[in-house]
Structure formats: structure tokens, C-alpha cells
Design brief:
The strands form two sheets. The protein has a six-stranded parallel β-sheet with strand order 3-2-1-4-5-6. Helix 2 packs antiparallel against helix 5. Helices cover 41% and strands 18% of the residues. The protein folds into two domains: 193 residues, Alpha-Beta Complex (inorganic pyrophosphatase (n-terminal core)); 121 residues, Roll (Diaminopimelate Epimerase, Chain A, domain 1). It is globular and about 55 Å long. The protein has 321 residues and is α/β, with parallel strands linked by helices.
Length: 321
């Protein structure tokens, strides 16, 4: 009931607004961008002025989704600033001033919310993806689900459920996808663009990362990394390491997978994945990050050897619980 009240409050404000800016989180994934594109298309269909304000490059595998929706600089203060797949101001840090300049602030997310982030929040940590919540929101807005909207929502939900393999995939997810087909969804080009269009540089980077693979905790955990030097040596881009965590997660007998990516400041962005019983959401929270029980992340200070030790100890502790 509470989530319905949250959604209805945002629906009413979106209907009354003339201009909306959407704020996906930094280091966009398929859910953040797909949900934002679906919202942008729907709000424009309603006659609203709407764009997606970003502060970093769209990952190569998702660039096909942006057909002029994304902007790097805001040319006006919107009536509503709406954060998408984001419940913490630290994930829109360089856009913070624009976000809070709006008359109304809101967020739609399926992660646990940081207190006082926005005035109105539609948050459901039980939802498989923010795309699921956007699907519900668009129904309440009364917009037509066009093929373009269906495609964007499919990308959002598909990528955040690991192509419908993760534990967050439930009956509701499949019912929504079935309804998207009725809207004109064509999934094959989307899957080809995301999963079967990998640049050679990414393959080379993944090969380098696999050379660094370490199995530990009685074969129940694995860890690997990509340094800036490795990324440069493969002629790759940092975002081309994003899918490496799923490769690690797929290893037989591994319950927890960890992947580190070096940041320009010498610290490491860390991704966690769990298969069945481990709670990597709590693990990430203890390390200053957050996320879900089976997928989460944090940042750990360098140097690399120090980061690896901290993470291995933390994972071993989690597996011993």
C-alpha cells in the first residue's frame, strides 16, 4: 500500500509539471538508461519537455538506445528533477546543483533509499529492476506503451535480471515481459546489440583479467581485477570491463564473485555477485557501499594488494556466517 501511495504522489506531480529532467546514476547500466529512456519517451508523449541529464559517457553496448534523449548540460531548471535507478545523491554528484534547483525532486528506484534524498520517492527493494517500477508508473500515467518504450523497458529488466537468470526474476517479471510483446517488443535486435556485439578490445581485456583470477575460500569465491594499465594495454575503455563480474559468477562451485576496476584516483570500484545463499548486499554495506542481496558494489582504497586483502577477508567472513 505504501508503494502505491508513493507512486500516486509522483504521478500527480508529473501530470502537473511542464518540464522534467531525468537523472540516471553515474556509470549507467541497462536498467538506469533503459528506465530513463522509457520515462523520457512517455513524458514527451504527454507533451512534457523531458530529457535525460548525464555526467559520464554512455557505455558502448548501450549507445544504440540514445536517440537524442541524453544531454550533458541543462539549459533550464525543470519543474521536476527525477532520479532514476538512484537513491543516493553521491551517484549524481556532479549534477547535484541542477537536481536540487527544481521546484520538486523525486526518485524511482529498487535499491534501499538514502534518507532525505528527494521529496517524493517511489521505492520498492523487492522489485527485480527499476524498469518494473517504471512499467507500473507508466500505466498510472495512462500513456501508450509504444514499441520504443517496450524495447527500453525490456533492456532495463533483462539486464538487471541477468537475462532472467538471477534470483530476482519472478512471475511478475515474466508477466510484464509478456505484456511488452503485446506493445510491439522485438527482443532479438536488443539481445544482439547488448550481448553479441562485443568489441575485440573487450575480449582482450577479459582475457587479461582472467589471467589474474584467484579462487579462494574452498573454491566458493573468486576474485579478479582490471587496472588502468591493463585497460590501456588492451586498447579498451573502462566500461568494457562491466560484464566481467558475470563471467566470474558463472564459474562452477563459486558462490561469491568479486571484480575490481581501478579508478583514475587509484582506488577501486568493486562489484559483488552471489549465486544462492550469500548476502553480498550486507557485505557491500559493511564496506561503505550497497546494493542487493545477490548484486552489490562498493569502493575500496588502493593500492591493489591492500584492496584484494580487504575484500578476500570480508568475503571469507560472509561465507563463514
Amino acid at each position: 500500500m505504501r508503494t502505491m501511495e508513493q507512486m500516486n504522489g509522483i504521478v500527480q506531480k508529473l501530470k502537473a509539471a511542464e518540464s522534467i529532467l531525468l537523472f540516471p546514476h553515474i556509470n549507467m547500466d541497462g536498467d538506469a538508461l533503459g528506465s530513463s529512456v522509457a520515462l523520457c519517451l512517455a513524458l514527451r508523449q504527454m507533451g512534457k519537455t523531458c530529457s535525460i541529464l548525464i555526467e559520464d559517457d554512455i557505455p558502448d553496448y548501450l549507445k544504440f538506445m540514445d536517440k537524442g534523449y541524453c544531454i550533458a548540460h541543462a539549459d533550464h531548471i525543470p519543474d521536476i528533477s527525477l532520479a532514476v535507478d538512484c537513491g543516493d545523491v553521491s551517484r549524481i554528484e556532479n549534477r547535484r546543483e541542477v537536481f536540487y534547483a527544481a521546484s520538486n525532486t523525486a526518485c524511482i528506484d529498487h535499491h534501499l533509499l538514502h534518507a532525505d534524498f528527494a521529496q517524493d520517492c517511489f521505492v520498492d527493494p523487492e522489485a527485480a529492476a527499476t524498469g518494473v517500477l517504471v512499467f507500473k508508473l507508466l500505466k498510472e500515467l495512462g500513456v501508450e506503451c509504444t514499441p520504443e518504450i517496450a524495447d527500453a523497458l525490456y533492456v532495463a529488466i533483462m539486464t538487471d535480471t541477468g537475462s532472467f537468470r538471477y534470483a530476482n526474476t519472478d512471475r511478475q517479471v515474466h508477466l510484464i515481459i509478456a505484456e511488452l510483446y503485446e506493445c510491439g517488443l522485438t527482443h532479438v535486435p536488443l539481445c544482439n546489440a547488448i550481448y553479441d556485439n562485443i568489441p575485440l578490445s573487450q575480449i582482450k581485456l577479459e582475457a587479461k583479467a582472467l589471467e589474474n583470477l584467484e579462487i579462494f575460500a574452498g573454491n566458493k569465491a573468486c576474485i579478479s581485477y582490471a587496472t588502468l594499465e591493463m585497460i590501456k594495454g588492451a586498447n579498451a575503455t573502462p566500461d568494457q570491463s562491466e560484464n566481467m563480474i558475470d563471467r566470474l559468477r558463472s564459474i562452477k562451485d563459486v558462490e561469491v564473485a568479486i571484480f575490481l576496476k581501478e579508478k583514475p584516483d587509484g582506488n577501486y570500484k568493486v562489484s559483488f555477485r552471489a549465486k544462492s545463499y550469500a548476502d553480498v548486499g550486507s557485505l557491500a554495506y559493511r564496506l561503505g557501499g550497497g546494493g542487493h542481496q545477490k548484486a552489490s558494489g562498493c569502493t575500496v582504497e588502493g593500492p591493489l594488494e591492500n584492496a584484494l586483502c580487504i575484500l578476500k577477508d570480508a568475503v571469507q567472513e560472509e561465507l563463514n556466517r
